[in-house]
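Risk register update: the risk of archive-format incompatibility is retired. Evidence:
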Amino acid sequence: MLLRIISFLFESKKKRFLSFCVMGTLVFLASNQNGMFWDNVLFASKMGNQLYYNSIFDWTMPDSFDPGHPPFLAFLLAASWKVFGHTLLVSHLVILPFTIGFFYQLFKFISYFIEGIQLQFFAFLLIIIDPTVSTAFVLVNPEIIIIFFFFLTINGILFKSKLQKIIGLLFLSIVTFRSMMLFGGIFIFEMCNHFLLEKKKFKLLLNLKFLLPYILGSFPGVVFVVWRLSTKGWLQTHPDSPWAGYWHFADFEFFIRNCIVLIWRYLDFGRIFIFLFLSSSLLFFGKKVFQSKKNKQLILLAITSVLFIVITVLIATNAFGHRYFIVSYILLILLAFKILQKLYNEKKLMYSFLFIGLLTGNLWMYPKNLSQGWNATLGHLPYHSLRIEAIDYLNENNINIEEVSSFFPNYNVLDFIDFKGDKRSFAKFKTNKKYVFYASVYNLTDDEQKSLANHYTVLKQFHKFNTTIKIYILKRP
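Archived output:
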């Protein structure tokens, strides 16, 4: 019965699109109360408000919070706020078309590698329950925009649609610096795919017919970079930038640390089950894994697409998140599904193992002394409603929020997070404040944890599922 329903809903492009519209709408209805979270407070809210209250076409950000990236998402938000209202609901509505578009492009991408509607659906399902992928659907963030245009571009290449390819490249070149790096990764992939897998002559890749889509597609990004350098003189950081201390070339010891963190990002939140499966498949089946040209394409794309991002994060001292490699996760999960279908007998059992493994990745919790990528797991979702509940408690007990210290990403103007017009803000954590607002989804340093333990006691606690918020009060001397 289930298989018949799947076949019916996805048998034609029209039905498929309508199904994805329903899926996207359900996600929107379930998540439209989620406030701005993590660095999206900056990329979406702060930058968006700068454009909203000034000019949506003046992309010059104040140096105090300018991250250098193009304010593409901020522009979309500001323009939408002007028309539909400055609300959190409208912010999530901006993300909805990209979620639906990503669903459609992902399914189309899968159809190139997998035959049969039912198998395509189960491959699609396995991919979207990856914690980092699914988290992109429920937050106002640039990631879902990036991966939509990434797969739009790749489908343009695979299905030989030059217009689709150029449109995808045009937007990839202007969303963020990371999308620009994916642009470069796609260029490397297409060259390697032609030369290594399709055995075409290398000189055919250097003609105008091959290069023109990339030349045209790079235009917005080139204009933005030239404009920034001519107006500000720097791209991402400057001496007075809040992030200046994080951007340096890594020494050998830090490089090794980055390599370990990179591996951890790929294994985190349940993806270790995917890599255990891929490793064991290579061990037991060896060359059979590489006999398929399409398997080789997936492996090649999983590597080349994030090549420039990987190089950048390995040689820099700045921290890097799980979402940086999200397209690579998707490609490797699809590779695992493809291998499962071709080389294994116990398909249902192995699929269930991978599915449950990824799904339970949302429940992973690390000890307090280990930082966790909360913006890459659905495990953070209870925080949004708990935060509102804790703020209500402070208001009801006449505790001045301006006198309460907190941690990233909570020491921001409240209106930047939930768009309710409240211009108050928590203070950045200092031990001289009487009250502290703490949540288990904040990554504290060892010193901050010690300060809380030594100088404060819990006044009030809020808990839901795996998330806890505590209001601390300074201990009496």
